[in-house]
C-alpha cells in the first residue's frame, strides 16, 4: 500500500502538497473505508436484495472507484498547472517528477 501511495502522489497528482504524513494517513483511511464500504455494498445487494454476486461486486467496484477518485483528489489537492504563453511549447506535468 505504501508503494501505491507514493505512485499515486507522484504520478497521478504530481507530488502536490507538503504534508506527506497527513496525506499518507488520509490515503490509508480512504482505502480502509473503501474496503468496509465495498463489503457492505456487496453484502446488502446479495443478502438483502438477492442480487447476482458478480453484479454486486461490479456495482461496489464502480461506487468505490468514484468515491476514491474524489477522495484522492481532495487529499492530494492539485494545484493549477500553469498554461504556457502563446507560442511556447507545452510541457508534460510528469516531467517535474525528478524535482
Write the topology of this structure:
Blueprint lengths: L1 H11 L7 H29 L4 H23 L24
Helix pairs in contact: 2-3
Distinctive features:
99 residues; mainly alpha
Proportion in β-strands: under 5%
Structural class: mainly alpha
- Helical residues, percent: 55-70%
Silhouette: elongated
Instruction: Indicate the radius of gyration in whole angstroms.
Output: 18 Å
- What composes the largest sheet? none
Question: What is the count of β-strands?
Answer: 0
Quote the distance from N terminus to C terminus: 23 Å
Q: How many helices in DSSP terms?
A: 3
The topology string of helices and strands comes to HHH
What ranges have pLDDT less than 50 throughout 5 or more consecutive residues? none
* Global mean pLDDT: 78
